[in-house]
Design a protein that fits this description.
By secondary structure, the chain is of the alpha+beta class. The protein has helices spanning 22-29, 33-41, 59-68, and strands at 19-20, 49-51, 54-58. It has a domain at 19-67. The protein contains three helices and three strands; from the N terminus they run E-H-H-E-E-H. Strands 1-3-2 form a three-stranded antiparallel beta sheet. The chain is rod-shaped and about 95 Å long.
Length: 103
């Protein structure tokens, strides 16, 4: 049973059983509903439950997703590898002569 102050449709709000709809999850994660849908199609993002035709997100799963998501600043990132050309081979039979002073 819903609390008296709670609207019956709960659009964009968590349900009393700890589940929120797409709008609630998107708002919580600061992403768009379309981003959540894309993540679901690519099997990424927070866990969700399909109840009939409805998609619901557990508040605990949203918290877990945020806690396990990688964040910046944790470690240094090495610069991208660039293609290096090999230096020309040096022949061992090349002799270098230097001018002698006073000659």
């Amino acid at each position: 049973m819903l609390a008296p102050s709670e609207p019956a449709n709960n659009q964009g709000r968590p349900y009393q059983i700890g589940l929120g709809d797409e709008r609630y999850a998107a708002s919580y994660l600061a992403v768009s509903v379309e981003t959540l849908r894309t993540w679901r199609k690519k099997d990424r993002g927070p866990r969700y439950r399909r109840i009939g035709r409805c998609i619901r997100y557990s508040i605990a799963d949203l918290l877990a997703f945020v806690e396990t998501a990688p964040s910046g600043g944790g470690r240094a990132v090495s610069p991208p590898k660039t293609k290096r050309s090999n230096p020309p081979a040096v022949s061992s039979d090349v002799q270098i002569t230097y001018p002698v002073e006073g000659a």
